[in-house]
């Protein structure tokens, strides 16, 4: 009888430890997310399931999840980092006066009809400042014509960033790293 109680207690401890570890990992390290909408097409599709890495600081062109002003979580690409001066001119990105290629937009640009994919703007036009403020990032969706991003909601405080994501795990035909 004593042996059964001991074995049962061992199982309960093991299950409790597993549940606590799973909660800690999901809460502080990795968590799943479902892409909702088409603002990141063609890179990400509505319904794609991804893993969010909650460690680290976003880098230029990373895909990040952040808490948007409407109380929803958005998924967008980091275009500008703190201190960057941004401009779009003739469908070309300029950061601190230097031209940057955006290969993730090539598929849409090839099929484009009726104007540029990304309308011309300067950071001053959008947020009233010449540079991305300290402690904030400027984000945009890859589906530039249909994305509610920093052009509409302003720069995103780093404190609102949940994490960076790259790994698509579902559906299987999309499995892999988002670029």
Automatic annotation (TrEMBL):
Transmembrane regions: 12-35
Cross-referenced Pfam families: Peptidase_S26 (PF10502)
Domain Peptidase S26: 9-170
UniProt-listed Enzyme Commission number(s): 3.4.21.89
Reaction equation(s) it catalyzes: Cleavage of hydrophobic, N-terminal signal or leader sequences from secreted and periplasmic proteins
GO MF entries: signal peptidase activity
Topology of the protein relative to the lipid bilayer: Single-pass type II membrane protein
Compartments (UniProt record): Cell membrane; Membrane
Annotated keywords: Hydrolase, Membrane, Protease, Transmembrane, Transmembrane helix
Domain of life: Bacteria
Similarity field: Belongs to the peptidase S26 family.
PANTHER family linked to this entry: SIGNAL PEPTIDASE I (PTHR43390:SF8)
Protein name as catalogued: Signal peptidase I
Gene this protein is translated from: lepB
């Amino acid at each position: 009888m004593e042996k059964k109680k001991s074995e049962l207690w061992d199982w309960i401890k093991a299950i409790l430890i597993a549940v606590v570890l799973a909660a800690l990992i999901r809460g502080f390290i990795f968590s799943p997310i479902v892409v909702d909408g088409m603002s990141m097409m063609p890179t990400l599709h509505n319904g794609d399931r991804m893993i969010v890495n909650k460690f680290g600081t976003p880098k230029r062109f990373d895909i990040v999840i952040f808490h948007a002003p409407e109380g929803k979580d958005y998924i967008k690409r980091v275009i500008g980092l703190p201190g960057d001066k941004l401009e779009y001119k003739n469908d070309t990105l300029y950061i601190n006066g230097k031209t940057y290629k955006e290969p993730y937009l090539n598929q849409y640009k090839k099929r484009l009809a009726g104007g540029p994919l990304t309308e011309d703007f300067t950071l001053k036009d959008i947020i009233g400042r010449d540079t991305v403020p300290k402690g904030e990032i400027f984000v945009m969706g890859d589906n530039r014509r249909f994305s509610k991003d920093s052009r509409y909601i302003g720069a995103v405080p780093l404190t609102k960033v949940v994490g960076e994501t790259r790994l698509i795990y579902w559906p299987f035909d999309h499995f892999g790293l988002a670029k």
